[in-house]
Specification:
Layout (H helix, E strand, L loop, with lengths): L2 H6 L2 H7 L3 E2 L1 E3 L2 E3 L6 E5 L6 E6 L3 H20 L2 H17 L1 H12 L3 H23 L4 E6 L2 E9 L2 E5 L5 H15 L2 E5 L6 H13 L6 E3 L4 H9 L6 E5 L2 H14 L3 E4 L4 E5 L5 H13 L9 E7 L3 H13 L19 H16 L3 E4 L2 E2 L10 E2 L1 E4 L5 H4 L6 E7 L2 H8 L7 E5 L3 H10 L4 E4 L18 E2 L6 H6 L1 E9 L3
Parallel strand pairs: 1-5, 8-9, 8-11, 9-10, 11-12, 13-14, 13-20, 14-19, 18-19, 20-21
Antiparallel strand pairs: 2-3, 4-5, 6-7, 7-23, 12-22, 15-18, 16-17
The protein binds nicotinamide-adenine-dinucleotide (NAD).
Nicotinamide-adenine-dinucleotide (NAD) binds next to helix 9 and helix 10.
Amino acid sequence: MSSVAQSHLLPEVEAFLSRNHFPSFVGGKDFESRSGDTVSTFDPGSGDKLGDIHDLNATEVDLAVDIAAAAFPAWSQLPHEKRSAILLRLADAVEERKAIIAQIEALDAGKIEAQARGDVQNFVDTLRYFVKLSQQVETRTKLEVAGHEAWKYRQPWGVCAFIFPWNFPFLLIGWGISPALAAGNTVVIKPAEDTSLSALYLAHLAKEIGVPDGVINVVTGRGATTGAALSSNAKIKRMSFTGSPEVGRMVAETCGRNLVPVKLELGGKGAAVIFNDVDVTDTAEKLVGAITFHTGQVCCDATRWLIQQDIYDEFVSVCVDRLKNVRIGHPLDPKSQMGPVVNAKQCKRVLGYLDKGKAEGATCLLEGGPATVDGYTGNYVKPALLAGSLDNVAAREEIFGPVAFLTKFANEQEAIQMANNTDYGLANSVWTSDLTRAARVAEAMTAGNSWINAHNVFPHGVPYAGVNKSGMGGGVLSIETLMDYYRCTSVVRPLGT
Ligand code: NAD
């Protein structure tokens, strides 16, 4: 790591990283892989190794699920106010350690430090949101039915399993486990092998502030071993998977065989539909901000920019100008605006799509390619803009990097048809000063989420989920998510019996 990043490290982060060796955390203590198999984790901004995490096998994952199951009765039967108090203490502790967790996340995931701080705060807000919401849930709801006394009784399921990707490691843990824990379930978390450190820090912190042992467990390792073992464990009561459609399909197949309910939050190829009545500079700058945010490694990003033809040239010119001036640098360098991609494989993927897109006839509006950052040998790429037919591979497939594909449209109908010309269905945005048209287009685009005059908007209370190749089985961030973590029993007595 260069001196800029090194000089910036908090002593608590240095102490945490000095372990070099990171076992999983199960039942309130370190949980070692018996085989000794490990996976190395790196700082994507410098290429430096941060340490080794353990690669748990199926027997070890099964043991972790058993430990979470053993913790379930006591946790689920805790009076609600006591469980809430523990979880709110956890939210407070995470908030107090925000700077520490953000640095760990910035180093492990290659995330700009200020953005990582935002992710940690989002975790805190999400946990507080679901604890508060759970206090309003009636466990017994009386049903008015002629001739019968009847009610619905809600209770938590048991062990809920979570598999997470590497792009928003800490924030997504918050989105995933907060409703499950608030409802009284215990959880087993499998973070991505590239970015497990913040999950392990959280598990230790939970222990420190008094979350009972076995309630929050972290099993680390490769997808094909640890992830596959967790999703095929028949004792888990619910599975939540966030990641690629390819792996999501495998996880859903496995859970289907065990009849375990599964939620899938998958990839996307979102459109931004930009009409000619926008403030061109302001809109272009916001979309430049979206495509460079976390180096474009955002599932719901606007990666297809559909621009009304009469403002196309002006729009492109502002975007090219702003993107050329984005400061690429190490995540801990306060001057950096865009960090690296997560690993060498992802770097190759992004650069490969530029080549494939051009080979299929895309025009290059901004070249992109590998970027160099003085003093660091990380996985840096430049932002790129391609243009042309939406049949192009770079317009159809998820790239997961700072690359947008631009095309022109003539009218509203054509814009909607273009936006919907995708297998995905996660999030799109419409940009116009005509709010009636905005609402019409927002409702006509086939996706779980439509945003108006903004992109990447996640207020708590608004459901966020994908359709088609972008997901199934629910979503996150709303009352519906919380209700997913209760199972329901109908109780009925014919009157007079
Ligand atoms: P990935 O599918 O490769 O991996 C996700 C997780 O699955 C990792 O923890 C991995 O170890 C695990 N895994 C891999 N193989 C497995 C197997 N056979 N069985 C069980 N688990 C396995 O995804 P990624 O590359 O880490 O993340 C990028 C993808 O995630 C993109 O497609 C992105 O759009 C998507 N994503 C979606 C959302 C959303 O909310 N919809 C949020 C973030 C990321």
